[in-house]
Amino acid sequence: MIVSIAEVIAEGVEHVDQLDFLWEQQCRQVQGYLFSPPILPEQLPLHFHEIQKRSIFLPQSCRDVTLLVTWLLLHTNGKGAPIWRKK
Q1: Cβ atoms 32, 83 nearer than 8 A
Q2: Contacts of 55 (CB under 8 A, 6+ apart)
Q3: DSSP secondary structure code for residue 51 in this structure
Q4: Which of 6, 36, 40, 64 is the most buried (most CB within 10 A)?
Q5: How far apart are CA 25 and CA 86, in angstroms?
Q6: What is the pLDDT of residues 30-76, one digit of tens each?
């Protein structure tokens, strides 16, 4: 019996076809420029507002993505990038 002990976060997602492939592979957490460049925590409220304004123009596969209120610290420079999870 195989037991899942970890979740995978795919980094570097830049295109909808990459997102669709990862979804087919059961990867539910992704981050990358398809959603946002790295931003600082204090920029998050404005970023949420911008996402809401433009979400109606995104492909359906992107509209099905919800933002986790979680930050992944990248490298050691303290910059974060939002992590996204498909429903």
Answers
A1: no
A2: 62, 63
A3: H
A4: 36
A5: 12
A6: 888 887 788 887 787 777 667 666 665 555 555 555 443 333 333 32
